[in-house]
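Bench log. Compound arrived from synthesis this morning; before running ITC I wanted a structural hypothesis for how zinc ion sits in the protein. Inputs:
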Amino acid sequence: MVKSSVLGYPRIGINREWKKVLEAFWAGKMEESEFHSQLQEIRLHHLRKQQDQGIDFIPVNDFSYYDQMLDTAAMFGIVPKRFNYEGGNVPIQVYYGIARGTKEAAASEMTKWFNTNYHYIVPELNGAEPVLTDNRPLLAYREAKEKLGIEGKPVIIGPLTFLKLSKGYKDTETDTWLDRLLPLYVQLLQELEKEGVQWVQIDEPILVTSLNAADVQRLKKIYETFAAAAPTLKIMLQTYFEAIDVDNYSDIVALPVAGIGLDLVHGLSGNISSIKAYGFPADKVLGAGVIDGRGIWRASLGDKLALLKELAEVASEERLIIQTSCSLLHVPVSTERETKLPSELKDALAFADEKLGELVLLTKAFSAGGSEIDNDLAECERALAALKHSNARNRRDVQEAVAIISSQKPERSNPFATRHIAQQQKWKLPLFPTTTIGSFPQSAEVRKARQLWRKGEWSQEQYASFIREQIDIWIKLQEDIELDVLVHGEFERTDMVEFFGEKLEGFAFTQNGWVQSYGSRCVKPPVIFGDVAFKGPMTVEETVYAQSQTARPVKGMLTGPITILNWSFVREDISREQVAYQLAYGLRQEVEALENAGIGMIQVDEPAVREGLPLKEAEHAHYLSWAVKAFRMTTCTVQDSTQIHTHMCYCEFHDMIDSIEAMDADVISIETSRSHGEMIHSFELNTYKLGIGLGVYDIHSPRVPSVEEMTDMIDRALHVLDPKLFWINPDCGLKTRGFEETAASLRNMVEATKLAREKYALSV
Ligand code: GLN
Ligand code: ZN
């Protein structure tokens, strides 16, 4: 009978108990022994759930105390020198030191795991002398067997992926490092083999990116070494998040491993066309990743069965495993406790636990068919049809309007040069206008007020008047500091996506749909499940109030369509591009409402544009073109004299300046204080022709930057940018900062601006 397999299960727990245990331990509120025993309980509970459902291959060693890349580094004793580690098992304090920093030593860098919202700790190889400190996969295997009688499938991150995602070595040292790591992997695998482990899952998601010839050679070396060293151990070489590149497909499936795991959701068309063109080796098991490990939607089991039948023609039933497309780490735990969602939505969702059920059902349906599961299959199709035909997904008004505006060219009436003149006439801004990115400190008082209001203890009016007081305080302060373009401070918002999602139609909010973002930090993304529609003004009241308190311009503040898209769980029955255009249409109505209410500067934040870049480089251009189009659709209908701003942060932008320019925002503020050099360099190569502010100080630390430091940043930027188009601002929103440090930093920023105005006045 065909078997089912899970690639990894969420560690956070249905009540986020994992997070709570970690944080209690960090706060010194839990003894280490208690900490270990509680984590073990959580881990075993997760294994038991999979066992109870009847999953055949249950992953072990997918659980982590923080992150699986960090676990792998720690297992090999790879610890940055600054933590004074002396070999042996990495103590828990050192482990968390690397992740979170200590008083004496900075944390390692953290970055996104491929194109997901999960962040891993980047291993630092330099100076390390790797040894196998403890065989974690082996311990996890023993634990599952002894406690639950589970014949687990240890999961490890493969050598090529581990190396490629690490830093602290030069390209030319890759092979040296591979030679250092390989014997440790061999030792690990041999110990597993000796223990009687049958299958091990070696994750190599790097295989879906473009590999060069040297990497393909390395792969051969790695897997030939493993095959020779542990000949009876079955290796499932696991890929996910995309298809294997067609150019490498034949080489990869020919590697001497027992099975190849393919993502047949996110890499469906690529992988299937490679299988059709080049076949699948007769001696290997095909891990068919048909259940989406990252999406929250229930699968159409009928479609999946048809796909599996097709695959059974290349890999016979004994050589087919029905799997999740990737680890379930990226979806929430269970829909069971969602009591507030509309039923047509809830019934069409499948989080991790529901996906276990889907796997088992598919396995049964595939092998036996028969009437016992007919009801389940029919219920699945009924639920999917109900959502499809729901009113939420059939807003003719939205669909027709979006069809029309997306067929037009989204263009402002006049080019930037003309608009710039109109805007200068209207605003008469000084050289180097100063502004901020939008939010001001969300003090304990602000958070408290919101809680009281949400609980119903404060009336709407009480809350609104509290918000107005905060706006008053900050408008006065901004005037006192002499900023040129003011903001209202975003006190009424907790989260820049949630705030708009709650005010637009087509969104739903789960009670418990948490997923791990990094370490113990979890996020609960909104769900875009229907057609997005504008209900009424979302930001006009606070913005207009702020503007009424000052003669200086106040910028309206919106979150852009692509950021909302990329930070939500999104419906899959229409393309992401279409959803982006619907969002753009809704937000455009807000832009127009602001303009009609007399707001003449409007910022549409797009910090998450880059996060949506597809893994395959060949698809970048298409994505960027519709992302830019969605931004332009949002902003293009305003008058010449209305100034459109945007803001971007969180990552490198130097290789997408062309797309940024194509957004045609009158002014962009970009976070650069952490990658200033690269950014400046890219402006040497490309001239930027619109208004631009490069963040002149890093808001991620409470430190108050000096006037000199900021002067230095300004001077460097002005080497490559046109002074007439240059703005001065911090590099991101100030929400997480304190009052005093924010005021002091902004005063220094204005001081530095005044010096710059004197210095550059003549040259302009
Ligand atoms: N306007 C938002 C703020 O200032 C921008 C946040 C962001 O860039 N992530 O908070
Ligand atoms: Zn930002």
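What the model suggests: The pocket of glutamine (ligand 1) is lined by residues 437-439, 490, 496, 557, 605, 607, 647, 649, 732-733, 735 (CB under 6 Å). Residues 32-53 form the longest helix (22 residues).
ITC booked for Thursday regardless.
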